[in-house]
Amino acid sequence: MIKRLGVALLLLTPFAAPAQDHRDESMYYPGAFNWQFLKRYPDAARLFNAFDYGHAVLYERLLTLPRPQASVALAADFEFLTRDLLVKPPKFAIAEDAVMPHYARLAWPAKEAFDWAHLLHRQIYDLYADTRLSPATRDSLIERVTDAYLADADYAFAPVPKAMELMDEQPFSLRFRTEQPRFNGLIWAYHWLQVGLYEPFVTGKSTGEQRAGVESVVRRFRTMLADSSRFPMVMPMTAAVAPRFSAAHPRAAAIFDNLHMMHDIISDILASPSMSRAAKRAEIVKQLAEMRDPSRNVMTWEHWKMMGEMMGGVDKMGGLALP
After folding, report:
1. Is residue 187 domain-resident?
2. How far apart are CA 150 and CA 60, in angstroms?
3. What is the pLDDT of residue 17?
4. pLDDT digits (tens, 9 = 90+) for 215-271
5. Is residue 135 in a domain?
6. Which of 2, 67, 247, 268 is most buried, most CB within 10 Å of its CB?
7. DSSP string, 116-165
């Protein structure tokens, strides 16, 4: 059973909401499989520490800086990320609150929802990396960990595919990717890698084949870093980039697509020049509730599986993880 530890903190800064947020902290589902991915694939696992920094610094810039200053700062951040931090990613997790203190105070529930989904990402990597598990046991545990994730209804994204209109057709939509296409492409490259890394474990028939597949996916990500023209042009969909993982675990795949859509939604809200900070907070909370709701604005599974072609083909999403 997953437990959360938390305390309600009164927020008194100009960026805060007029009420209290309950500051929960996420805890791993217990198991001997935890940390196996970091142990066996450290070069890939440490990239996630850099991803966390990239998301955090982006949100802080968009929230706290006027548009011209934000553009200058994000250009410098892009160079630092692609030429330094992602080339030699940090060995330890980033203290995101220190990187984005104002955003964390403004939108703690959204930050926690992201953390909770990122834990699910990491635990599934761990399960795949644990060579002591049989394929059947591993797949059963992936579903059990997904159940545990969904049991925390306050923070879990819906396990069904939500309509893409939520990302593309709201009043604030497209703002960030229009103003910051390179940084947006970098975020999509993160998401391509995050879902693409599952595919070698599903297709590899031996530990050696799985390792070769992981190394191949990481190399392709690094070619994107070296040439931003290779970044995805549309948001990578898990069913398109990692079709065999998505067929094996569709709930987890849909959760990750909804997580990645929410990243885009928040970037657009924060980049909107016409919304006050209080309005941005309210909109983020509203959108978070929408993305957690499995009963509204949902596409069919059949439609979801076809989204790759409907959005211009998987090549526009960065390509299949394993061509």
Report:
1. yes
2. 28
3. 44
4. 999 999 999 999 999 999 999 999 999 999 999 999 999 999 999 999 999 999 999
5. yes
6. 268
7. HHHHHHHHHHHHHH-TTS-HHHHHHHHHHHHHHHHH-TTTPPPSSPBPTH
Cα–Cα distance for residue pair 21/9, rounded to 1 Å: 6
- Structure tokens belonging to residue 104: 């964390």
Number of domains the chain contains:
1
User: 112 lies in a domain?
Assistant: yes
Q: In this predicted structure, what is the pLDDT of residue 28?
A: 76
pLDDT at site 18: 40
Q: Show the CA angle centred on residue 23, arms to residues 18 and 27, nearest 5°.
A: 160
Closest to 253 in 3D by CA, of 265, 263, 264, 245? 245
Q: What per-residue confidence (pLDDT) applies to 320?
A: 97
Low-confidence ranges of the chain (pLDDT < 70): 1-26
Phi then psi for 308, rounded to 5 degrees?
-55, -50
* 287, containing H or E segment: helix 277-292
Contact between 191 and 236 (Cβ < 8 Å):
yes
CA distance 267 to 43: 28
Residue 5's SS3 state is: strand
**Contact (Cβ atoms closer than 8 angstroms) between residue 217 and residue 242:** no
User: Which residue range forms the structural domain that includes residue 281?
Assistant: 108-317
Task: Give residue 3's pLDDT.
Answer: 41
* pLDDT recorded at residue 22: 59
Task: Establish if 216 belongs to a structural domain.
Answer: yes
Other Cβ atoms within 10 Å of 188 Cβ, number: 23
